Amino acid sequence: MNKIFLTSEDLAKRWCVPTCTLEQWRWTGKRPQCVKIERRVRYVLEDIENFENQYVMKNSPHQENNLYSKIRTVK
Questions:
Q1: How many domains does the chain have?
Q2: Average pLDDT, the chain
Q3: For residue 21, is it within any domain?
Q4: Model pTM score
């Protein structure tokens, strides 16, 4: 099975946050899992989707607060 990887820029666009926020989350441990491939940070799309599902289940019981309504998906 081929994994789909996102760059920090891809994830920042998906979540509408600056890339420096993702960097800070990596530094403090408040982030989804990432991997480093030749000194470049990559996020496995499946891990991101699992992270989003956990966040939505814990924090957004109502449709108007649903995290998915604010996320643009990368195709």
A1: 1
A2: 80
A3: yes
A4: 0.69
